[in-house]
Design goal:
Strand order of the largest sheet: 2-1-5
Oligomer: single chain
Number of helices: 2
Shape: globular
Strand content: 25-35%
Radius of gyration: 15 Å
Largest sheet: 3 strands, antiparallel
Structural class: alpha+beta
């Protein structure tokens, strides 16, 4: 089974991530690979063969699909230096 991940904002503006089992495994694997040397990964449309491919078809009418994005690992010492306001 190929990974299937759909990311959307629903009618109320709430972020939702829809996953099949293979999509869950891929997302967890990419999250676990994050470290100080590799602190982010990108997601994008499935047809572009990105790091984490996402679907462009909504589950429900009215959902706003999010096709492009970046997931970033932030260490507290980095944020203390560069973005201290987020630690308060």
């Amino acid at each position: 089974m190929k990974p299937r991940i759909t990311i959307n904002s629903d009618r109320d503006g709430q972020l939702e991530i829809w996953l099949n089992e293979a999509g869950r495994d891929l997302l967890v694997r990419e999250l676990q690979r994050l470290n100080e040397r590799s602190d982010h990964f990108h997601f994008g449309p499935e047809e572009l063969d990105g790091e984490v491919p996402v679907q462009s078809r909504a589950y429900r009418d009215g959902d706003q699909i999010i096709e492009w994005g970046k997931v970033m690992l932030r260490f507290d010492d980095w944020d203390a230096r560069h973005f201290p306001h987020v630690l308060k």
